[in-house]
Amino acid sequence: MSNPLPSVPSSGTAAELENKSNRVAQSEETEEADYSVIEAALQPERVLQLGILGLTTHLAYEKYYKMDIEHMDIMNMALIALVSIGVGAYSSFKASRGNIALLPDFNVVYLIFLPTMLSLLFEQRHAAANIALILNYMQISPFYGLPMQMIFIAFHAMDLSVEEKYTYLAAVPINYAISSVLSRISQLKSLDNVDCNIFSILLTNVLYLNESTSLPFRVLKKTLTAFILVVSINYLISMLLRPMSNSIAKSMILFGVFLCGFPYAVKRLLVIDGLDPLVWLINYIANSKLRQTILLIWLCSLIILIPNVLIFKSSFTLNTSRKVWHFLILLLISQPFQMDSEFVKISLAGTIVLFLCVEYLRYLKLEPFGEFLDSRLRSFADYRDEKGPLIISYIYLIIGIATPLLIDDSPFGLISLGVGDSLASIIGGKWGKTGWPGTGKTMEGTAAFFIGTSIMSLIFKQYLGYFKEISISSLIFVCALSGILEGNSVMNDNILIPAFMLIAERILS
Fold first, then answer.
1. Helix or strand (DSSP H, E) at 337
2. For the chain, how many structural domains are there in total?
3. What Enzyme Commission number does this protein have (predicted)?
4. What confidence tens digit (pLDDT) does each residue in 96-126 have?
5. Exposed, middle or buried: residue 62 (CB in 10 Å: 0-12, 13-18, 19+)?
6. Which residues, at least 6 apart from 452, have a Cβ–Cβ distance to it below 8 Å?
7. Is 1 among the domain residues?
């Protein structure tokens, strides 16, 4: 006869686990039942952010809304997008009996604010398309979402020609495809849903919507197109090479295709004055002593500084060694931009694509340089870079610095990242005592941001010829708002703060 006693503990353990599971489920249900959207929105850091964005929107309203119907329509479209996302999310939240995961991330306010304001201030023609693309954020089937965005565009582009309407309608699937690819590559870890949608809107504008004929923009558009084309070809080749067991040989093949294919694609796509792009670039630099001097200074600085930073990196904290690059870019770009802005903008456009090429080789660890690049870049990675497969900090940095310069010749990217963000991070990390609620950042860091950016902005205005259209008081006001926003936002500073400062500068000019 078997002894029944051993079965008692087992049965008791199962009952305990079941009871524990029930308690956890009840706790989660209670938490969801007690969740209040209003209380969540009224958290101090969110109130401050909403207050700053609301004040900026009010200033834009006062300046533009009463001027003409075009600006009025843009603001109305943004309001419709905000209400659509809010109502859709709240309906899903209620239908799911309070599933908090279905509520939008707070940073969706920036997804609405940034494209709307940049369209309002710099490119009104594309406003209807850009605001419609914001709706891609909504977590609904593309069979419903894409037609909804197209209807939004068609309704708000009634005065346009048929050809222009089709152009804007085609932006919807292009944006969706880019967003889907970014989501897949980043695994929604390196980039979250808001990041993917912000970058998909940016890329849709650069690659498709914007038709600027300026030389820096042409260089950016064509080289970026060449990069995407060759990466796509390599993806197809990698699918064909899956049965291959030798991973090193496979890696070398992909590297060879990229190494040969990218320059060839650039050569075919980018023709300047009827010349091969490399020949044109050599002539462009050779015909100007100033460009040769700027290039020589850049090369000497990098040759001297890069090895020294790598050698003495162990003497600095990770944060300090990362911010060295911020200061370096500030020094290398601010004065040369005043001397030859076109050359600097072309260089920045090329550097953006160059950094993407580096990240592509590192991401796939393609032989013979992939592993080396990964080890070097990982040594400067922070917690955000460790969340997913992409190292995005250095790409964010160059985009944040280049965007204000490329859009409006504004140095606020240099000032905010080269001085403000660096001082806030270093001083806040070492001496910060009083924290902002909900972010982990400190008020001492915010004070350092404000003082540093204010002083540097005044230097740029008084001695370097920048900020001719904005008063000193307005310049300091922009720095104050940006410092508070930087201290309370958890969105990546390298993208948010330069864009916000550019927007505030234009509104207050």
1. helix 318-339
2. 2
3. 2.7.1.108
4. 776 676 677 888 999 999 999 999 899 888 8
5. exposed
6. 419, 420, 422, 423, 424
7. no
